[in-house]
Amino acid sequence: MSKTHVKSTLVELPPELIELIEDSDVIEDISSVDELVEFHDINDEKVIKRLLMPGAPFGPYKILKFVAAGGMGEVYAAERQMQDGRRLGPVALKVISPEYMDDWAISERFKREAQISRAIRSPHVTRVYEFGQTQEGHAFLAMEMLKGEELFDRMYTRRMSQEESVEVVLEILAGLKAVHDAGFVHRDIKPENVYFNQRDGLEMVKLLDFGIAKVKDQRSDPFLSVVGKIYGTPEYISPEQGLNPDVDERSDLYSVGVILYELLAGRLPFDGDSAYAIILAHQSQAPPAMGSSVDAKLTKIVMKALEKRPEERYQSASDFQDDLRKWLDFRRDDFMADSAHHGRFRQDTPHHAKQTPMHGVPSPGLSEPSESSEAPPVQIFSRPRRRHQPTPHVSTISPAPERETPKESKPLALSDPSVVDPRDEKAHGSTAAKIITGVIIVLVLALVAWLSL
User: Which domain holds residue 365?
Assistant: First the structure.
């Protein structure tokens, strides 16, 4: 099989390849296209025609496994083969169809991801290793392979206590602190871009998808110069980002506040029938109360993060972290005092376990809850993916599916999922609704300008 020639920019080399076990998550023992199509339940003829088989060369990479597919391309597990015989990886190799070779937005996204990866050294930020294009026109991006699940999937399939929710947000803020300190603003923080990566028995939160990130002090952005388009995800966008893409780090912190609200309340603070209705709600409506089950001190922290005016919010990720850590310490001290009073606390309780147990699920070091003991309300969510939800990030790898139940292929998130186009009739309803929404937005903009005087 001939080797594909590529022109690429190497950001950094992947780590040395750990010896792969034949039945591991990154090895696929499939010998024909028909078998691959059947195993992964692929129905798109365009995807089938451009599939790369396990073992196929792709520039300096060797394909190990098919991971996911979408209308614009595919994602594979791959290893990088060096001239000295070393094998590096595995990596997630995102390969774009040649029909999109002239789409400069894809190339711009890849460059941004690489730029940020080169500038930031944080375990909470996904690594990018290489990007480029083949002679045949396939744009590609090689990045860190992740194994685990998105925050979105976790928050809607399992119980998370208030303490657990805060711990997750602290890790998100740790990643954002590194991003902001390096001089960037993410601009698309949401549960789908927060990933629980599992490695060596440990779990760590990773931030994904820096495709629409910007340099913090940059006042103009040619990538966002298309008149009438708003870049971001309506459910998590800050009030100011809905008006102007030139935002600073406080916009990201607002998005984190939305995530924390959603984790605690089990619902979004703002929803609506269209993207523009949701954006307007962020700009003009107060967040609804989260409910009496949420601790009052924690509620104040969330509401400060969701202030409409950036200067009234947390000014840095560190400030946000400080208040959350103080709240956690308060809760743990309060729990220890209560446990000691009732004779339930054991001295060998691990530090991370010193939190209120979930109903019916005893924490390590705690006695089984009695039938009469009261447990705090715990939120478990069940709503489907949102109407205005961009497609999920797929530069990740999940455990290999059983052959009897093929894994569903996911679409590839690239240049368009985080863009709201006002020309899209589905985005905001009828012509009359468009006119009314436009008038309201102009009024809100005028009010914001007046308040800033």
Answer: 148-394+422-453
